[in-house]
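Retro notes (design track)

What went well: tokenization of the new backbones is finally stable.
What didn't: we kept losing track of which sequence belonged to which structure.
Fix going forward: every design gets posted as structure first, then sequence, in one message. First example under the new rule, 310 residues:
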């Protein structure tokens, strides 16, 4: 068994794109995700988990488009399961397709489980995409977080569900990552325990905290806890989308105005919105670089051929 993958990172966050070795799956992108999860989860475990992957690796599986006009159907996955959308992953996929010579600068649509995203390849590394409809579901939701008291934040959707904490528990800087991780993990557990969800009971599986920027020109810095309880090294495309939706809803961001969102490692996304009824369509821009091109081998005698745990 062999999987051909191309690795990239988008503003520090890795994406592993499978370009060969996938089964051919019928149906639309949601049916393809379901079949991958139910019958071929070893692919996610092989590409995302140790010893070949890591807890921060996001996998992306490409399929022929099930929707007219789109380049591919794409299913994103991580160390614990599958994602409806992934912003840094979208930028990584488009930059990788350019590196493979499959696309040229211009617009390219990807059909994700959360909906169609309109990506634009600007040059070999720079990609922007208009994300799916994003909105704030609830403002100023207070929950009780063991060890941290009452924590207040907004529930918003940016392709994934987010809880955007109002006040950070500590400085939002890399040297505080252990405290930020413990705090955001406790917030995630408290949300689940106290039944705070996204629309139709959707699990909130990303937590975002904000602090003052540390790089020139940035407007805000974030720390984003992802579903596998690892933080995003990039400013998080879906998280920045959720933030843009909240700023717009609060009248703090005008249509077309640019927000420069810094990540915990000091990398940047630029974001802006197009207004829509009840929410926004965010556009996120960032850069990705290809870091590897390899064949993952699964030796039948290797007890960890399909990853460790997960
Ligand atoms: O960029 O949307 C994103 C993302 C989600 C999880 C990791 N990155």
């Amino acid at each position: 068994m062999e999987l051909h993958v191309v690795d990239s990172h988008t503003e520090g966050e890795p994406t592993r794109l499978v370009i060969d070795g996938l089964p051919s799956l019928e149906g639309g992108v949601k049916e393809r995700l379901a079949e991958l999860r139910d019958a071929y989860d070893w692919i996610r475990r092989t590409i995302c988990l140790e010893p070949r992957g890591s807890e921060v690796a996001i996998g992306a599986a490409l399929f022929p488009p099930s929707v007219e006009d789109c380049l591919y159907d794409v299913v994103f996955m991580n160390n614990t399961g599958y994602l409806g959308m992934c912003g840094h992953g979208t930028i990584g996929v488009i930059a990788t397709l350019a590196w493979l010579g499959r696309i040229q600068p211009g617009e390219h649509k990807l059909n994700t489980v959360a909906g169609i995203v309109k990506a634009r390849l600007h040059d070999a590394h720079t990609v922007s995409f208009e994300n799916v409809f994003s909105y704030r579901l609830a403002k100023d939701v207070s929950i009780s977080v063991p060890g941290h008291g009452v924590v207040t934040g907004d529930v918003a959707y940016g392709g994934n569900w987010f809880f955007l904490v109002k006040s950070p528990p500590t400085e939002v800087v890399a040297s505080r990552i252990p405290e930020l991780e413990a705090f955001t993990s406790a917030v995630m557990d408290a949300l689940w325990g106290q039944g705070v969800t996204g629309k139709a009971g959707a699990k909130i599986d990303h937590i975002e905290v904000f602090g003052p920027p540390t790089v020139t020109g940035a407007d805000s810095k974030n720390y984003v806890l992802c579903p596998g309880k690892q933080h995003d090294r990039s400013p998080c495309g879906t998280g920045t989308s959720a933030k843009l939706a909240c700023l717009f809803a609060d009248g703090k961001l005008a249509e077309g105005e640019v927000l420069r969102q810094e990540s915990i490692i000091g990398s940047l996304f630029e974001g802006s919105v197009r207004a829509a009824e009840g929410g926004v369509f965010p556009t996120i821009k960032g850069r990705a670089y290809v870091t590897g091109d390899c064949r993952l081998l699964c030796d039948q005698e290797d007890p960890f051929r399909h990853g460790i745990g997960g």
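Added context from the reviewer: Residues 16 and 54 are 11 Å apart (CA to CA).
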